[in-house]
Amino acid sequence: MSERQVVVVGYEGAEMLDIACVTSTLDAAVKLGATPPYAVALATPGGRDIDTGTGLGLRAGRTLERVRGPLDTLLVSGGPGHERAAADPRVTGHVRRLARESRRVASVCTGATVLAAAGLLDGRRATTHWALAERLAAAYPRITVDPVPIYVRDGAVSTAAGVTSALDLTLAFVEEDHGAELARLVSRWLVTYLQRPGNQAQMSIFTGPPAPEDGLVRRAVDLVTSGLSGELTVAGLAAAVGVSERHLTRLFLDQLGQTPGRYVRGARTEAAAHLLASTRLPVGTVAARCGFGTAEALRQAFTARYGVPPSRFRAAAQRAVA
Description:
Blueprint: E1 4-9, H1 16-31, E2 38-44, E3 50-51, E4 57-58, E5 62-63, E6 71-76, H2 82-86, H3 89-100, E7 102-108, H4 111-117, E8 125-126, H5 133-139, E9 144-145, E10 151-154, E11 157-160, H6 165-178, H7 180-189, H8 215-226, H9 234-241, H10 245-256, H11 260-278, H12 283-289, H13 295-306, H14 310-321
Parallel strand pairs: 1-2, 1-6, 2-5, 6-7, 7-11, 8-9
Antiparallel strand pairs: 3-4, 10-11
């Protein structure tokens, strides 16, 4: 029986979860009947064992320089050592070589830096961990860096946002290779959600960063998140916190990196995603509760943010818990 050869590239300072989310998911797929099975190996420069970003060690299975294709999948992990790896011509050279011999290429988190340094993301849309997306975009202007999705697939090259998003991307690979039913079984085996859409935002109003430092912005944000079905105009928010529209906009840009209007739209869309996934409310009711005038207005905003309409998003969420 032929095998799907998968090589995960690690290096000193790679993130343990970036690697384990991939290898454990594929191992579960094999145990649950993936045919042909995956044959997964961790390859490192010089074949050396590596210390991960968490202080735990990993034993290398193969020497990066000696790996030969054809490969089914080449995946580069991220981690605190990603910049050193990207600056090492041995690493980027062999990643570039193996990419030519692989059916698909992927990275997790800051592993995108290594793919970028190897020239494999030029002219492509890609993602990485939200906290480092700006740095990647500045360093590699030929890449369209999108910090919002949990993973991006551009042709044969995929990039995942960070850490556990590797699990989502690997489940997508399992579904592509072996069908939705096996992917569902693997997700249940791993006790994880099947399957967050790739365009789902990395952060949300439910799991986002800490509250803004500025008290006026915190008050405005509280007004938004507690009253999504209301008007929530910039003028109304500014009046409620006692500043001009221009000053409130300046504060939002400084504290949150976006205008009040954009923040409101994002908050409403995130809330709609939460209701679609967790309730059976009609789409029109969800739209009303989240401040969208009509179901069509929700559909347009939802598709713009997530790349899928509300109905498709809900169907995926329902399959996840079936």
